């Protein structure tokens, strides 16, 4: 059963937010123009933190940062963007200079992309990651928080997935993220750099790119339905995922950045602890968009399973709860409600845009899936 209660944040997380407002820090967010990175930048700027963003715009978008900056009156010194590539060590050193915390999200995502081009995935995700560790250590930053992935669980049969038990890796992307975790562990043990890895499970939300061969399933399906096109489901639709709304990922980053030192040199699942099949997800999105699209009644198109895909993915979040104070504010229903509202309100171009649809579609969605 998927919860549809209104999102709320925990008292612990609220205390963290209040403390950051009282005692601002200097932050570096790599991949700042990406979906997750721009959401982190937005939260930090709301908290009046000083933020450096680093991005080469290979997958990120200037529109994401423009959207963030348009929502707030930001004093110029609070945000600086560096256009550069983490594969260049000098660029990493420049970006890390003077920062207190590094939140590392620059990477090439997508299992299929890594299978088609493993060399570039390794260059960015492994060599670039190592550059960032070196630069962070040399700059004397207090904490390095990085994006890992549920892909490191590979073919494990253990459900829910727990951090200490992984299986055989199924893709070059998974190898790159597992290598990141090993490098981070070594840098804390040898150099004393405090590190925390966040194993994301299918993060989704506003500003996630619906276009391209490697687009994630939720924005891709939303865009297809808004255009009246059939949605593609790989396999029989009973593949399941633990879909995690972007607000939960942002929360995890701030908690990891401020957690006690005893929580460092470790990795944590960041998810909701729920499981949703692709068939269920399709139904939820279709119901949420009912009345606003032309092709809402169209059946999805089922295609063969993709190599490297995991059949079942559901996280145990007990460790993150106990050691970071993590508590998801959004589950799949209310996360989808906010996501659909953002897309329908005109952030994805509609043929017949109507003002105010964001509130309407959110209410209709919660009613439909409640």
In short:
The protein folds into two domains: 9-202 and 245-274 and 313-329, 3-Layer(aba) Sandwich (Rossmann fold); 208-241 and 276-311 and 331-370, UDP-galactose 4-epimerase, domain 1.
List strands and helices in order, with pairings:
Elements lengths: L10 H12 L3 E5 L4 H12 L3 E6 L6 H9 L8 E5 L5 H8 L4 E4 L6 H6 L1 H22 L3 E7 L22 H20 L3 E6 L2 E2 L12 H10 L5 E3 L5 E2 L2 E2 H13 L7 E5 L5 E2 H12 L11 E3 L14 H7 L7 H16 L9 H13 L1
Parallel strand pairs: 1-2, 1-4, 2-3, 4-5, 5-6, 6-11, 7-10, 8-13
Antiparallel strand pairs: 9-12
Helix pairs in contact: 2-3, 2-9, 4-6, 6-7, 8-10, 10-12, 10-13, 12-13
Query: In percent terms, what proportion of residues is strand?
Result: 5-15%
The CATH architecture category of the largest domain equals 3-Layer(aba) Sandwich
Major sheet details: 7 strands, parallel
Number of contiguous helices: 13
- CATH class of the largest domain reads Alpha Beta
Residue share in helices?
40-55%
Q: Averaging pLDDT over every residue, what do you get?
A: 88
The class by helix and strand makeup works out as: alpha/beta
Radius of gyration: 20 Å
As residue ranges, the low-confidence spans are: 348-370
User: How many individual β-strands?
Assistant: 13
Shape: globular
Task: Supply the CATH superfamily name of the largest domain.
Answer: NAD(P)-binding Rossmann-like Domain
The total tally of domains equals 2
Roughly how many Å apart are the termini? 10 Å
**Which fold does the CATH topology of the largest domain refer to?**
Rossmann fold
Q: What is the helix/strand order?
A: HEHEHEHEHHEHEEHEEEHEEHEHHH
Biggest sheet: strand arrangement: 3-2-1-4-5-6-11
């Amino acid at each position: 059963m998927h919860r549809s209660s209104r999102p709320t944040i925990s008292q612990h997380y609220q205390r963290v937010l209040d403390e950051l407002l009282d005692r601002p820090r200097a932050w570096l967010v790599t991949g700042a123009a990406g979906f997750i990175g721009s959401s982190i930048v937005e939260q930090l700027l709301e908290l009046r933190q000083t933020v450096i963003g680093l991005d080469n715009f290979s997958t990120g978008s200037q529109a994401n940062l423009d959207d963030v900056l348009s929502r707030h009156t930001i004093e110029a010194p609070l945000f600086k963007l560096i256009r550069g590539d983490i594969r260049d060590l000098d660029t990493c050193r420049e970006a890390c200079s003077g920062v207190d915390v590094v939140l590392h999200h620059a990477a090439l995502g997508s299992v299929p992309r890594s299978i088609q081009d493993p060399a570039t995935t390794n260059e960015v995700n492994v060599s670039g990651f190592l550059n960032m560790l070196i630069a962070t250590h040399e700059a004397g930053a207090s904490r390095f928080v990085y994006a890992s992935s549920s892909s490191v669980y590979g073919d494990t049969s253990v459900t829910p997935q727990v951090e200490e038990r992984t299986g055989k890796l199924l893709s070059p992307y998974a190898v790159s993220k597992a290598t990141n975790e090993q490098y981070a562990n070594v840098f804390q043990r040898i150099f004393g750099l405090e590190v925390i890895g966040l194993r994301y499970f299918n993060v989704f939300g506003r500003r996630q790119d619906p276009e391209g061969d490697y687009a994630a399933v939720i924005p891709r399906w939303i865009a297809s339905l808004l255009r009246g096109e059939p949605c593609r489901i790989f396999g029989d639709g009973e593949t399941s995922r633990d879909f995690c709304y972007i607000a939960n990922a942002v929360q995890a980053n701030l908690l990891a950045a401020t957690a006690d030192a005893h929580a460092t040199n470790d990795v944590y699942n960041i998810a909701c602890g729920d499981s949703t099949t692709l068939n269920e997800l399709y139904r939820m999105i279709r119901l949420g968009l009912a009345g606003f699209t032309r092709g809402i009644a169209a059946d999805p198109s089922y295609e063969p399973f993709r190599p490297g895909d995991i059949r079942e993915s559901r996280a145990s979040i007990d460790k993150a709860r106990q050691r970071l104070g993590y508590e998801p504010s959004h589950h799949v229903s209310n996360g989808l409600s906010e996501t659909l509202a953002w897309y329908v309100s005109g952030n994805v171009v509609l043929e017949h845009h109507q003002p105010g649809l964001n509130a309407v579609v959110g209410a209709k969605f919660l009613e439909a899936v409640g």
